[in-house]
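ARCHIVE CARD
CATEGORY: sequence design from structure
SOURCE FIELD: tokenized fold
FIELD CONTENT:
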């Protein structure tokens, strides 16, 4: 299984900048690793209003258990919700927050 490295953080913003079909091999490798987390407690995206609003939630510990919303944030784009989910998974896997200095969503 691919092990995330510190340098991978600088590649992740490509997720917001390109279409899926144009992702680099390096980004695809990072995304595959970030998506390989246990189902129990996995961060997921819940549709609040189709094609308009999304929220982040966690899967329950067992199949059929209700999901629990992580916070009150509502995202106006699916891509923004995905980005937040990826950063949460980054923290889960690496034990460190995604570097704010590399986060394009925090830059003005």
């Amino acid at each position: 299984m691919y092990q995330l490295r510190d340098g991978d953080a600088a590649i992740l913003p490509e997720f917001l900048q390109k279409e899926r079909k144009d992702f680099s091999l390096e980004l695809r490798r990072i995304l595959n690793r970030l998506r390989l987390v246990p189902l129990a407690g996995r961060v997921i995206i819940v549709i609040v209003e189709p094609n308009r609003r999304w929220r982040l939630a966690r899967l329950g510990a067992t199949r059929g258990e209700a999901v629990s919303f992580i916070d009150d944030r509502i995202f106006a784009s699916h891509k923004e919700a995905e980005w937040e989910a990826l950063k949460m998974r980054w923290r889960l896997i690496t034990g460190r927050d995604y570097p704010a200095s590399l986060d394009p969503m925090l830059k003005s």
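CARD ANNOTATION: Helices lie at 14-17, 25-35, 78-94. The CA atoms of residues 56 and 84 lie 8 Å apart.
SHELF: design records, drawer C
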